[in-house]
């Protein structure tokens, strides 16, 4: 069975500082990896996804993530955070069959931005 | 594009009653829809997968007689919580996967969620 681990429950970053949110996955085949952001009262918004190809993936809002197969990781990064980035971030993995199955989510990382 | 709506956004019901939640894909056809449950400050847990015109597939531990799912059309899936109890109170989120060939077939589009409170 697939699983996702987000080791950091909370992360506090100063506005303008860089950010890295960690995600480790467990899956026996080629994973489909996603990062979503959830703001209060809003649905999940897809930041970026990795299916194949270039292991450095660019997403929306200035986010990027790097797939490292040897480390089973898919960490999310942003060079300079904005106060509006404060939200809950979820890493998720899907089956290699191409999205036919539901996603397995990590427990999420709550991002707090300090002024 | 790729908008998924849910109705209602919030619902309060009394213990023992049933409540229906709708999930609609507004601008695309969704052959597959997923229902997730999210407890406060926790992750989303997949409850079931529904394919248009067929019975839903439930995850282990999810009572299919309690959580009735109907996916009658390519744009609508419903989740009915039957004989609701306070422990069913949660945030229910649906997602829809576009039909193959429509672009973004590997991506799920999420609805805004429905907050259910059972008193």
Please tell me about this protein's structure:
The complex is a heterodimer of chains A (115) and B (119). In chain A, 0% of the residues lie in helices and 50% in strands. Chain A is mainly beta. The radius of gyration of chain A is 14 Å and the shape is globular. By secondary structure, chain B is mainly beta. Helix content of chain B is 0%, strand content 54%. In chain B, the strands form two sheets. In chain B, strands 2, 4, 5, 6, 9, 10 and 11 form a seven-stranded mixed β-sheet that branches. A four-stranded antiparallel β-sheet of chain B has the order 1-3-8-7, with no helix packed on it. In chain B, a hairpin with a 5-residue loop joins β5 and β6. The mean pLDDT of chain B is 90. The interface between A and B is medium-sized, with 24 and 24 residues.
Q: What number is the mean pLDDT of chain A?
A: 91
| Main beta sheet strand tally, sense and closure of chain B | 7 strands, mixed
| Poorly predicted parts of chain A | none
Helical segment tally of chain A?
A: 0
Give the helix level of chain B as a range of percent. under 10%
Work out the helix count of chain B: 0
Question: How far is the first residue's CA from the last residue's CA of chain B?
Answer: 37 Å
Overall form of chain A: globular
Q: How much of the residues of chain A is beta strand, in percent?
A: over 45%
Instruction: Evaluate the radius of gyration of chain B.
Output: 14 Å
Low-confidence stretches of chain B: none
Shape of chain B: globular
Please state the structural category of chain A. Answer: mainly beta
**Element string of chain B (H = helix, E = strand):** EEEEEEEEEEE
Q: Please state the average pLDDT score of chain B.
A: 90
């Amino acid at each position: 069975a697939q699983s996702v681990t987000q080791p950091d429950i909370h992360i506090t970053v100063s506005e303008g500082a860089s950010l890295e949110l960690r995600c480790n996955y467990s899956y026996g085949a080629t994973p489909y990896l996603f990062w979503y952001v959830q703001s209060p009262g809003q649905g999940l918004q897809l930041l970026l996804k990795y299916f194949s190809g270039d292991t450095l993936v660019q997403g929306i809002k200035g986010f990027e993530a790097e797939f490292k197969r040897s480390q089973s990781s898919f960490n999310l990064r942003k060079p300079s955070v904005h106060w509006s980035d404060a939200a809950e971030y979820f890493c998720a993995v899907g089956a290699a069959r191409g999205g036919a199955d539901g996603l397995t989510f990590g427990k999420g990382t709550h991002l707090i931005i300090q002024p | 594009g790729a908008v998924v709506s849910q109705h209602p956004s919030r619902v309060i019901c009394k213990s023992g009653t049933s409540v229906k939640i709708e999930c609609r894909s507004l601008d695309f056809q969704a052959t597959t829809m997923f229902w997730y449950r999210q407890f406060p400050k926790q992750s989303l847990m997949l409850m079931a997968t529904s394919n248009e015109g067929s019975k839903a597939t439930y995850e282990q531990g999810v009572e299919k007689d309690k959580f009735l799912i109907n996916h009658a059309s390519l744009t609508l899936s419903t989740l009915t919580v039957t004989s609701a109890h306070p422990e069913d109170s949660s945030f229910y989120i649906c997602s829809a996967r576009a039909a193959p060939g429509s672009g973004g077939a590997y991506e799920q589009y999420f609805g805004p969620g429905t907050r259910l409170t059972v008193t």
